[in-house]
Amino acid sequence: MKFLSLMTMSAAALALIGCHDQFGPTYTVSGTLTGLIGSGLVLADNSGDEFSPGANGGFVFGGGLGNGDAYSVTVATQPSNPAQTCTVRNGSGTIDKADVTNVIVSCTQTGRFAYVANQQSNDISAYAIDSANGQLFAIDDSPFADGGTTPTALVVDPDGQFLYVANNGSNNVSVLSIDSSTGELSLMGIPTPTGSAPGAVAIDPTDQYLFVANLASNNVSVFSINAGVLTEVADSPFAVGAEPASLAVDPNGNFLYVTNFNGANVGVFAIDLGTGTLSNISGSPFAAASGAISIAIDPTDAFAYIANEAAHSISEYSLNASTGALTAVSGSPISAGSNVEFVAADPAGRYIYAANVSAVNQVASYSIAPASGALTELSTVAAGSLPICIVVDPSGQFIYAANYDSGDISAYTVNASGALVPVQGSPFAAGTEPHSIAID
Fold this sequence. Notes:
The model is unreliable at 1-21 (pLDDT under 50). The protein is mainly beta. The relative contact order is 0.10. The protein folds into two domains: 6-107, Immunoglobulin-like, CATH 2.60.40; 110-439, Methylamine Dehydrogenase, Chain H (7 Propeller), CATH 2.130.10. Strand 25 (255-260) and strand 26 form a beta hairpin. The chain contains no helices and 43 strands.
């Protein structure tokens, strides 16, 4: 096999692996970059040609590849000032008579700000995160008005520009812009209507679509995103199951996972990346246990975990990244304390963290067996009263739990063995009935 000379290609082009008909059709490799705030990011192809994207959004490698040629996009140089870690998904494969459009490059750094939805006080607490020790410091003018009633769930977009808040009492979603320097919030316009009793929100990794689980109307509203402005997509909302309680999008952005609290199962839906519409996959919904209330997908896209509140357990699944299907791990579900309320995965795919509520009032850490996905408990640590939500810092260094009854946030560092150690000064005061927490 004769390789084409790299000298014949532009610096932004992908090198060809294998030969193709020079007079046949050619194809490009493109994708989406999110989260970049530093400078100096360099992407490379499999033979070392380099390309520096200028900003978040769409990017395209300029060379023409023939059918059957291989491609592989990697990060040659990570951003600096501030330092960030960028990862590539859907970055390698073989051209199959079509342009490649689904490469995802996501950049993160140690969390800068934390935001808490206070359900009873109808506002958002905002904190600056000390990157050295994980302590929280209230931002000037915090808490911030939400614009709706009973804020129950929130999420920061992948670029760190906007905070989306599901308002369970007013049946809508508020959008707040984030000041990148101070972390202060500014309400953007009037909230956008959703279905009845929205209780969970998620964003796809390319920052194109916002998904909202409507607990009382048993459906999911889908909105396209344009600079923080939401527009409901065609055919939304989509029926999903009985009392959808939580949402997760797989790291490749292909599937939406919905836990159905009253249905004791999880629905899996293929996401049409062009339109945002949802379609049920074969075999969905997949059985969980009583009170399926929270889902976490490990970042390797190999396993999924569901907190079953009423069954006091965690269901474990292997995940087929191509089809989205779930298969129960041997021994699943496992006992997980009293009324396990929430599960979250660390960004390296090593651990799962669970909030055990009611009488236990603890946060537990579990190691993930790389081969099987089975969980092994590593530690438990005291939290406040009724820990109801957990979030993991993007660097994996810090864990935060929102304590619903005690009105505060417990903070922990993760030691070398995966055990949790309380941060000095923890817990940190929040508003009344903090229900959800997100990190920028």
